[in-house]
Amino acid sequence: MDDFIIPDLHNMKLPKDLKKLDKDQCDLLCSQIRQILVDTVSKTGGHLASNLGCVELTLAIHRVFDSPKDKIIWDVGHQSYTHKLLTGRLDRFDTLRQEGGLSGFCRPDESPHDAFISGHSSNSVSAGLGIATAMKLKGSKRYTVVVLGDGAMTGGLVYEGLNNAGKSETNLIIILNHNEMSISKNVGSIAKYLSTLRTKQSYHKTKDVVEKTLDKTPLVGKGLIKAIRSSKKAVKNVMLGSTMFEDLGFKFVGPLDGHNIEELENGLKAAKRLRQPVIVHVNTIKGKGYAPAEKNPGEYHGIGSFEVATGNPDVVLPDSFSSVMGEELVKIGENDESICAVTAAMKYGTGLQMFAKRFPERFFDVGIAEEHAVTFCGGLASQGMKPVFAVYSSFLQRGYDELIHDLAICNTHAVICVDRAGIVGDDGETHQGLFDISFLSDMPNTTIYSPASYSELRLCLNEAVNAEYGIRVVRYPRGRNSSCYDLGPACTTYSHIKNGGRILAVSYGRISDNLFKAEEQLNNSGIVFDILKLVKVFPLDQKIVDIFNSYDAVLFFEESYRYGSISEKYAAICSNVVPYAINGFIKQGNVADLLDKCGLSAEKIAERIKEIANG
Amino acid sequence: MDDFIIPDLHNMKLPKDLKKLDKDQCDLLCSQIRQILVDTVSKTGGHLASNLGCVELTLAIHRVFDSPKDKIIWDVGHQSYTHKLLTGRLDRFDTLRQEGGLSGFCRPDESPHDAFISGHSSNSVSAGLGIATAMKLKGSKRYTVVVLGDGAMTGGLVYEGLNNAGKSETNLIIILNHNEMSISKNVGSIAKYLSTLRTKQSYHKTKDVVEKTLDKTPLVGKGLIKAIRSSKKAVKNVMLGSTMFEDLGFKFVGPLDGHNIEELENGLKAAKRLRQPVIVHVNTIKGKGYAPAEKNPGEYHGIGSFEVATGNPDVVLPDSFSSVMGEELVKIGENDESICAVTAAMKYGTGLQMFAKRFPERFFDVGIAEEHAVTFCGGLASQGMKPVFAVYSSFLQRGYDELIHDLAICNTHAVICVDRAGIVGDDGETHQGLFDISFLSDMPNTTIYSPASYSELRLCLNEAVNAEYGIRVVRYPRGRNSSCYDLGPACTTYSHIKNGGRILAVSYGRISDNLFKAEEQLNNSGIVFDILKLVKVFPLDQKIVDIFNSYDAVLFFEESYRYGSISEKYAAICSNVVPYAINGFIKQGNVADLLDKCGLSAEKIAERIKEIANG
């Protein structure tokens, strides 16, 4: 041991030098990495448990494969922190999820080691198959390695990918990182099925025994009887593995201990030798190596900064649009047995845990399956139930066709609570809610509410639930209502504040607040303008058009992508409407800063108004 | 046999009286129904083979269940003709797919026996689960019966539905109608897997034997050896059935002979008794009972009218936008090895069969899996390939999130050929291509071409393929180019025809033609107007804005849904632009009639121009 060298991440050529480490050095490196993860995430916030769970796995992957020549794809990407540390991003790791810093997900424009973008679940197999197919067509013998959590297995896109990948003659290796946790506890039969695979018995040992015996059967039967007698379950497992994956055309390796570097590397090397699509089943423990996270991984999935010793997240939001929606829906559910609440693996994020506790039989967590969630709502509604699907704006994009086909065409009544609408911040371009206004207002039979306060949210939710037909959307931002103005009596239509100005400033949702701030800022400038705060933003309203036409200029500020926006739709009717919306994808950053960049801060709004007022 | 009564569909109470028929009467009825199907579809066009394949199955369902109290859902719905005949729509059956007539798919507003809308594939399990769940919550003991083709099994939405349905405690019965044909020959591992289930051996017999033996094993092993020796495959099948479906939580019944009424009814009654989610596997022969269709079911999937004796479809379209695209892509592929063609089970419909034949290794039919198709293209493109995904407009809706997440965010270069764009006609509201312009132009990093002629289509396709970044969309209508005007030299930008008018009429795609027709019609009225024909319709172009601003009035006629349309986007910038687009969902009908209804015929366009000209 005298020639033992403590590995120093800061002075290694990464990922190359990882291959030079011996087992003890690997173990030491893993604990160093865990320390970095806990220290950093405690300051920056981010996904802790999922990353602590795959430290050894990530190290093993980089020791067995050659990134970026071999392509590594992380589904969702919230488990890619160690990958970032091992591919030359250690020195910038403290900028994680900060404006201009490292993304909390995989970004090809951040590093050549991030082979494909990640953020939305379940796209990795399809992307990996595309990459593996391209390499095959170009005559490359390189590997494509996909790392997939069991949570992502609940999304239909993965299944479409597996259905096509199994029969492909590519060097595609799919690592199923099985920790029995997606964002909230895993749901659905596939989870149950995978758990049966998560068996103490080594799949391979059992399999060899039984296959050999089966082959010999006609000659000697005793062996088989022994195998059966020893464990019926073992046979079942062999057959399980052999159908769900091998009959989809994959070779199956595993289950492997996801915290045993040697076992992992042997398994990955075996998969490499097969040179065909392989599923490698790896069992990991979410939060591994950090007691508080191991004990309560849910809490540490995606968190704000927290205190390392106790591990208590210092950001808890009972005071948020999400929780207000959740509380109000419970109230509504008390008096209306037809209310059903649906979430796609975001029970806690959407505030539906309260409804789930109170009305378990009317609560449905469908897994990461937004398409199913929408169509399921269509089925419920067709029988007179009142489904309420609470979902993040950027994830609802998955249900676009189902919204049109299974709800809008029949003018079916369903409520969609669009959470995380508008700019979300730290999670970047894959998670911003920029498009829901455009794609929902471009759909027939849709009504959209955008409350600016908790009281308006409650009113809108009640009105939406009690409507008789059509898709009723209630959209609201992430986090708490930071409004510091009395916006007058809450309503579900609009508020028109008249100061005798010839200019009208218009907005909806949380941005409305900035109109009032701007008014204060312009107080002494002698510039006078009126304010219109919309709550029901779509369909367009003739009353609103008449108000617009009564002004010289209408400045419409909107926290939404510019094309398909409400301001654009009104501008197409009223020639005096000037839209100020968001001009493209928005990278990660502080919400206030990003709003300012987009020209939606009080200061920027005041500037625009000033320009117009001064002609 | 003297009391044998020939069943008379016209004078039966349907579906009630079906239960009174004996086996001989059922067989007789089935041949009567097949005659009606062939006669009608030969006149109206529609889906023949799929309907001929499930005559007995449909009859059996209506004899075992009580529609509409029990809910019957037909996935896609192109196999629901017999269901329509047996539920009181016989007298109107000759109006199939005609304006104001019966839909070729299921429509709840057409009959209470159509429990849910159908048209887009793979939504039936999710919708059925919603219905079954609602019935359970309301305390009903009724059944929900879903009929699913093996083609629909390639769609991820089905998998999301199965994953949730298996564990539900509902009376949901899913009939897997297995004919080994989706629209084109089935692809993917699931198809292979299902075929292994399509075994001569009766699943149940084998299963009983083996299960009994397994139970007894510790005591007597001989039985098992016998079972194994008799057929290893049998055991495999048991385990197959028991994993893919039973481990998803379903009971499994089948495979049943889909053309044997008694076997079908016994199987369905068995499923009924189980009172839990069941998969019933039924083997059918597509085109059953009509020789030409049996011989070549592909040709008879969705067809125009044809001649009964020979069964030759009288509508074949080598002369169509689809085939011109297909031919041109082969030409491009000859000189560019990076071109890959992708289809979602529409090889023939999109004209890609030529590319498939010439470059099989660069052609990918991914099954009915539009999400995967888009993300797969993202993977291919990330390695320098040039993917071209040819897809029907209304089906591309399924890939909305993937277009944003897996292509647009990274500004990845991929070509989307949007076929069946605009009004499609006979297939109705689920198949009209009304939304592609809105959702694609509301996406950053997207360019949209809408050629009006074959020569423009060729130019646009080449420009799209040779671009360096971004989503390049080429959209074109179903069928042939019926333009009778020389639109001047083909281009990929725009043509501006000046007649010295103060009014400008604008359009793109096939509608442009009607501007010239309108010009003729107004020839003697003294009304003079100029014409602008757009080819690259998005992004918006300052040159176009300048042209618009040089006119008194700009009338923009557009074959697209009004909200999110190009005309609306220009109207938001240019106050003199008046958009004329489509105002909502469009039911089935003749394309020319529907265009006229939407105000897009030459006559209606001429009227609008006249109104404006005469102030």
Structure description:
The structure is a homodimer of 615-residue chains. With 615 residues, chain A is an alpha/beta fold. Chain A has three domains: 9-200 and 240-295, Thiamin diphosphate (ThDP)-binding fold, Pyr/PP domains (Rossmann fold, 3-Layer(aba) Sandwich); 321-475, Rossmann fold (3-Layer(aba) Sandwich), CATH 3.40.50; 494-613, Rossmann fold (3-Layer(aba) Sandwich). Chain A is 39% helix and 15% strand. In chain A, helix 8 (203-216) packs antiparallel against helix 9. The longest helix of chain A has 22 residues, at 23-44. The relative contact order of chain A is 0.08. At the A-B interface, helix 5, helix 6, helix 7, helix 9 and helix 10 of A face helix 5, helix 6, helix 7, helix 9 and helix 10 of B.
CATH superfamily of the largest domain in chain A: Thiamin diphosphate (ThDP)-binding fold, Pyr/PP domains
Largest interface: A-B, 112 and 112 residues
First-to-last CA distance of chain A: 79 Å
The number of distinct helices of chain A, counting runs of at least 4 residues, comes to 24
Query: What would you report as the Rg of chain A, rounded to the nearest angstrom?
Result: 27 Å
Q: Strand order of the main beta sheet of chain A, please?
A: 7-6-8-9-11-10-15
Uncertain runs of chain A: 199-243, 309-316
CATH topology of the largest domain in chain A: Rossmann fold
Domains of chain A, number:
3
CATH architecture field of the largest domain in chain A: 3-Layer(aba) Sandwich
